[in-house]
Amino acid sequence: MTTAVPDLADIEIRDPATDEVVGCVRPAGPEQVDDAVGRAVAAGAAWARTSPADRAGAVKDAAAAVRAVAEELARLNESETGRPYDDALGGALAAAGTLEQYAELGPLHRGRSLQGNWSATDLMVPGPRGVVAAITPWNDPVAVAAGLIGAALVTGNTVVHKPSERSPHVGRRFADLVASFLPDGVLTVLDGAGPTGALLSAHAAVDVVAHVGSIAAGRAIAEAAAGTGAKVLLENGGNDPLIVDDGVDPVWAAGQAALGSYANGGQVCVSVERIYCHAGVADEFLAALAEEATRWVYRPSAEGEKALGPLVDRRQREHVHAHVAEALQGGAVAHVGGAVPDGAGAFYPATVLSGLTPQMRIVREETFGPVAPVRVVDSFEQGLAEAVDDPHGLAATVLTPDMAHAQEAWRALRVGTVKVNAVFGGAPGGAAEPRGLSGTGFGYGPELLDEMTATKTVHVEPCPPRHRP
Question: Which of 165, 235, 292, 451 is flagged as catalytic?
Fold first, then answer.
């Protein structure tokens, strides 16, 4: 049973583009958390015994339903988090594709046999872990939830989902839609902020806590799980570096840097957070990057411009601007942006900074906003060394014409994903393990099925004949 009592005051959600109230939710307390987990436990045995093909069929049907309402989900997402509609629609469609992927992979997930004595059989058999608590973020609320929930369901687990308190309506709409294709209790949804997540994470009957979000929340979840024995999967965000090597086309590199820094307002788990640019191309790169930044506007209005939505709320804008203002006070230079605009909403301009030192907070911590902090370095080796000198370990990007440098970089960078000559992209089904402060465990891909299951080794020998006197 859970004992901590959270603040049960209603949570108000405002459209970050207009400041208008778009909804209100009541956070779940101990009784609601106990009820949801209890229902998941009660449904567990029957769902685990359901054939993998039937589980996959339910998830595949849910995927089709999600695809059918993708536009509705995108509008909800846009109104709650400010994510530009086209990006939000892409996230909803990606969620449908992710559910379809796990519907295909689930029945193929299998164990293996071991070679032992002729008369014995040895098997390593995966099975569901039990109740999965899926705690998901606001910056891509539908696609992230689809990954964790889809992998958990097709492997026979039941799920209690807590979407972010900053995107509760789109989170609940998605989860309720998926749950409508499942037996009662297999997937339930809880509203609430950190206190509700803490109750869920510390619940004795939860077997897996899968979380995508902040470092602080990830640490709290890990501490709670240490007391219950639950398995923990964490993606805690990162401080992803981009290295711009000498010899690259500076205009092309600037386009890559802008995309990595400004997409979704810089509110992507693998956004570019710090840039190390070789002095040989720095002047041209900074000029091109400043020009690129001017194309990212609050609302697209002309050919060649790109949508830069608001930050998720004013609290996040205050966090972003605090990093920028501190850097400017420390001697950094703003080539573009760097000031809080007037008017409604939580908008912040696409910003380019240079003149940074390694000790500045904007270099050392995740800013999570539309800011491209550029540090000019004298050599590729210096840029790589400074990129590596960081406790986070989510992702990194290297732009270089030198494949020896690319090889050196991907081996040296202590992160889950290294991208060479592209800030985004990757084959379907990819998975990686974050390191350091960025978390632990595989997210997405076939490997996530392994994380959601426990392997049991079974040794079977024939019973000897009964001795009869």
Answer: 235
Q: Which of 78, 80, 100, 269 is catalytic?
A: 269
Domain residue limits at 380: 241-420
Convert the pLDDT of each residue in 67-83 to its tens digit.
999 999 999 999 999 99
Q: Is 269 tagged catalytic?
A: yes
Residues 342, 221, single domain; the answer is no
Instruction: For residue 330, give the amino acid letter.
Output: G
Element (H, E) at 396: strand 395-399
CB burial of residue 227 (10 Å; 0-12, 13-18, 19+): exposed
Q: How far is Cα 340 from Cα 128, in angstroms, rounded to an integer?
A: 49
Residue 40 lies in a domain: yes
**Judging by DSSP bridges, how do beta strands 306-307 and 296-297 pair with one another?**
parallel
Q: Number of folded domains in the chain?
A: 2
* pLDDT digit string, tens, across residues 306-348: 999 999 999 999 999 999 999 999 999 999 999 999 999 999 9
DSSP-assigned beta bridge partners for residue 113: 123
The answer to whether residue 235 is catalytic is yes
Q: Flag whether 468 is in a domain.
A: no
Decide: 75 and 160 in contact? Cβ < 8 Å: no
Residues near 291 by beta carbon (within 8 Å), at least 6 away in sequence: 254
- Of 141-150, 336-345, 398-407, 424-433, which range is least confident? 424-433
Domain presence at residue 103: yes
